[in-house]
Write a structure and sequence with these properties.
Residues 27-282 form the Histone deacetylase domain. This protein has 320 residues and is α/β, with parallel strands linked by helices. 43% of the residues lie in helices and 12% in strands. Strands 2-1-3-8-7-4-5-6 form an 8-stranded parallel beta sheet, sandwiched between helices. The chain is globular and about 55 Å long. The protein starts with a strand and ends in an 8-residue tail after the last helix.
């Protein structure tokens, strides 16, 4: 399974900054030792042409040149730096690359990404460019694919609603946006996804998985995607300081497996991004993300085995 990383593009954050930047390097180190068969690739850089599929020109130029006003920079949550721009471009590029790889391999992973709070004209909540929206539209514009023939579903299971994604793709019938999130959590002003499922504070494994089952059933009834982009946030975990939900490690494994089974049963390629995770103990967050990658690798093996079996079942007539 191919995995795309950006953790060597580290932002120069001030001491005490609450964003857990080191989780990405720790995740890469952990999955390299624990998940066999990973093929690691440095994330490509999303160029302006790709970013403009989801963002306005003025915003892209202002971010790139460090010309955002202080209020808009504060809303992103990171101080501006060339490293911030480079990492944000690479994070979007990693999701684009994971989508393309998934079309061949069945599944691929971005070891970052999930920047779903970024709007067309502004960033927010540690999100600069919206990788899922960019990758959706970029994939639809690849040779042989047009929006009407290549529908994309974004399954967003970060604990926070994907407001930026919903806003950017609101009028785009070729992309279905599904968000399962904490109803009273950030962002406090929600946008309308194609399907929103808001959960109560303290929601545990049983209620969460029941809600997810219902949401996936609705998705299957309304939309037939050719690709899924899955935001596998670690922040629904019971140890997350910002999550306010109570999912256990076993519950999060069942969540991931439910999404992978949904894709497998329908033969839909799936690109996975890590999205949020802010554990009181950073090791917990890394463990949740690593579990997702391990389950994704198992899904890749299952996909490959089915391909092999299908190939073996083809009979060829004897030549005369």
């Amino acid at each position: 399974m191919r995995a795309f990383y950006t953790d060597h593009f580290v932002l120069p954050l001030p001491p005490g900054h609450r964003f857990p930047m080191r989780k990405y390097s720790e995740l890469r180190e952990r999955v390299l030792t624990e998940v066999p068969g990973l093929a690691m690739h440095e994330a490509p850089r999303a160029d302006d042409q790709a970013l403009l599929l989801a963002h306005g020109l003025d915003y892209v130029q202002a971010v790139s040149a460090g010309l955002l006003d202080p209020a808009r920079q504060r809303e992103i949550g990171f101080p501006w730096s060339p490293e911030m721009v480079e990492r944000s471009r690479r994070s979007a590029g990693a999701t684009m690359a994971a989508c393309e790889a998934a079309m061949t391999d069945g599944i691929a992973v971005n070891l970052a990404g999930g920047t779903h709070h970024a709007y067309a004209d502004k960033g927010a909540g540690f999100c600069v460019f919206n990788d899922a929206a960019i990758a959706s539209r970029w994939m639809q514009r690849q040779p042989g694919r047009v929006p009407a023939e290549f529908p994309v579903a974004i399954i967003d299971l970060d604990v926070h609603q994907g407001n930026g994604t919903a806003s950017i793709l609101r009028d785009d019938a070729s992309v279905f946006t599904l968000s399962v999130h904490g109803e009273k959590n950030y962002p406090f002003r929600k946008e309308a996804s194609d399907l929103d499922v808001g959960l109560h504070d303290g929601c545990g494994d049983h209620d969460y998985l029941e809600a997810l089952t219902g949401a996936l059933d609705i998705l299957a009834g309304r939309f037939k995607p050719s690709l899924i982009i899955y935001l596998a946030g670690a922040d629904p975990h019971e140890g997350d300081r910002l999550g306010r939900l109570k999912l256990t490690m076993a519950g999060l494994a069942a969540r991931d497996q439910q999404v992978f089974d949904f894709a497998y049963q329908r033969r839909i390629p799936i690109a996975v991004t890590m999205a949020g995770g802010y554990g009181n103990n950073i090791d917990d967050t890394v463990a949740v993300h690593a579990q997702t990658v391990a389950l994704a690798a198992r899904h890749a093996q299952r996909w490959a085995a089915r391909d092999k079996a299908a190939t073996a079942s083809i009979s060829f007539p004897l030549s005369a």
